Amino acid sequence: MKKLVLAGLAAAALTAGALPASAAVAVAVGVAPPALPYEYAPAPRFGFTWVPGYWAWVGYRHAWVPGHWVKRRPGYVYAPARWVPRGARWHYYAPAWRRY
After folding, report:
1. Is residue 28 part of a domain?
2. Residue 40 within any structural domain of the chain
3. Neighbours of 65 (CB within 10 A)
4. Which residues, at least 6 apart from 82, have a Cβ–Cβ distance to it below 8 Å?
5. What is the value of pTM for the model shown?
6. Which H helix or E strand runs over 6?
7. Which is nearest to 62 in space by CA: 5, 17, 11, 20?
8. How many Å apart are CA 61 and CA 12, to the nearest integer?
9. Is 41 exposed, middle or buried (0-12, 13-18, 19+ CB in 10 A)?
10. Number of domains in the chain
11. Is 86 a domain residue?
């Protein structure tokens, strides 16, 4: 179980920086994400963007992806992961870089 969670977290972290600007992966589930835990945001770092932690959907449950740094992309803005409620379902939109 621990290996599955770690593999999911690693995959989510690796794809966060590699997604194209137009990527918007949506997953609809009937389970609300847990409350966001407090996460310390480090001081700004030149050339990088801090990605706050978020709940990703891995397999059949929510898995916490901790905050991390990603290299900044000129001409793009980072759109963090988000969960949007619609009716009885929660829709997950993966983090992505979007053109200005």
Report:
1. yes
2. no
3. 22
4. 54, 92, 93
5. 0.70
6. helix 2-18
7. 5
8. 14
9. exposed
10. 1
11. yes
The residue range of the domain holding 18 is 2-35+45-99
Question: Is residue 62 pLDDT above 80, yes or no?
Answer: yes
82 in a structural domain: yes
Q: Which two tokens stand for residue 58?
A: 């891995």
Q: Per residue, what are the HEC states of 57-78?
A: EECCEEEEECCEEEECCCCEEE
Half-sphere exposure of 81 toward its Cβ, with a 13 Å CA cutoff?
A: 30
pLDDT in tens, 10-23: 444 444 444 444 44
- Alpha-carbon span 93 to 27, nearest angstrom: 7
Nearest to 23 by CA among 100, 96, 99: 96
Q: What is the pLDDT of residue 11?
A: 45
